[in-house]
């Protein structure tokens, strides 16, 4: 099963809608609660990053027999230093974004913690692709 | 303890739909940074926070929390309440600060 989502880069109030929708589908499919939780948390973080850092983008989520693979693509500024970005507490989020409760510097660390595999392809000035895999 | 029992015991204001589907509370988490809360709060928890923007609804839904408890009587927009109701998220409110609210939850629910 394949799902496609468009992620707005300006509508902060809609941030998390793709993750919420996909979580509902997983629940309806009767997947175990721990799998649903792993997907929900890692996907939400990637979605939020696509909004606040990527300036919006797309998300494709695929459910197969063995795994759930979710890719996020944006045409944003890219990640300058991935090692730094992976550090808990490190964030380049703006003050406006922080006031909304984001920018804790936990996005990528949470993805790494909850997804079974995390792949990041990023080119400064061109964009970022994040692929999350959760094994079933 | 159920959410309705907690609301009664602590004299909490129910901000969202009063006819909510009651559920059991298993733990409590305090925090205002969404990603931090997201990665650490447990399922069926009471989430005490002073953050009241619309994004708290997604966090509570994705983590499958029992309810959100807004501390210090923080104001909340109608739009957030509507979104919470559409997703079956219960939002409660207290004038206590987060520390006092956490103690009150601990005493009442023994968690």
Structural commentary:
The complex is a heterodimer of chains A (136) and B (111). Chain A has 136 residues and is of the alpha+beta class. Chain A has helices at 17-28, 33-52, 82-85, 95-99, 107-114, and strands spanning 2-7, 57-63, 67-74, 117-123, 127-135. Chain A has one domain: Histidine kinase-like ATPase, C-terminal domain (Heat Shock Protein 90), CATH 3.30.565.10. Chain A has a five-stranded antiparallel β-sheet with strand order 1-2-3-5-4, covered by helices on one side. The model of chain A has no long low-confidence stretch (mean pLDDT 95). Chain B has one domain: HprK N-terminal domain-like (Udp-n-acetylmuramoylalanyl-d-glutamate--2,6- Diaminopimelate Ligase, Chain: A, domain 1). Chain B is α/β, with parallel strands linked by helices. In chain B, helix 2 runs parallel beside helix 3. The model of chain B has no long low-confidence stretch (mean pLDDT 96). In chain B, strand 2, helix 2 (34-40) and strand 3 form a beta-alpha-beta unit. Chain B has helices spanning 3-9, 34-40, 55-63, 78-86, 98-109; strands at 13-14, 27-30, 45-49, 67-70, 91-93. In chain B, strands 1-5-4-3-2 form a five-stranded mixed β-sheet, with helices on one face. Chain B is built from five helices and five strands, in the order αββαβαβαβα. The A-B interface holds A 12-13, 15-17, 19-20, 23, 33, 37, 40-41, 44-45, 48, 100-107, 109-110, 113-114 and B 32-36, 38-39, 43, 51, 53-56, 58-59, 61-64, 79, 83, 87.
């Amino acid at each position: 099963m394949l799902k496609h989502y468009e992620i707005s880069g300006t509508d902060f109030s809609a941030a998390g809608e793709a993750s919420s929708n996909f979580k509902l589908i997983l629940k309806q499919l009767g997947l175990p609660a721990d799998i649903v939780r792993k997907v929900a948390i890692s996907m939400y973080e990637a979605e939020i990053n696509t909004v606040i850092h990527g300036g919006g983008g797309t998300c494709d989520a695929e459910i197969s027999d063995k795994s759930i693979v979710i890719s996020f693509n944006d045409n944003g500024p890219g990640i300058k230093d991935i090692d730094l970005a992976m550090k808990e507490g490190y964030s380049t989020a703006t003050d406006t974004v922080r006031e909304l409760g984001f920018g804790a510097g936990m996005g990528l660390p949470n993805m790494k913690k909850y997804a079974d595999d995390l792949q990041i392809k990023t080119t400064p000035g061109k964009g970022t692709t994040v692929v999350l895999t959760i094994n079933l | 303890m159920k959410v309705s029992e907690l609301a009664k015991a602590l004299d909490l204001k129910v901000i969202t739909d009063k006819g909510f589907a009651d559920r059991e509370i298993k733990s409590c988490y305090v925090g205002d940074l969404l990603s931090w809360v997201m990665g650490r709060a447990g399922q069926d928890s009471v989430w005490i926070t002073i953050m009241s923007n619309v994004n708290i609804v997604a966090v509570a839904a994705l983590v499958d929390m029992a309810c959100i408890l807004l501390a210090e009587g923080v104001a909340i927009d109608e739009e957030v309440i509507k979104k919470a109701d559409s997703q079956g998220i219960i939002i409660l409110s207290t004038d206590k600060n987060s520390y006092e609210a956490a103690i009150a939850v601990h005493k009442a629910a023994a968690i």
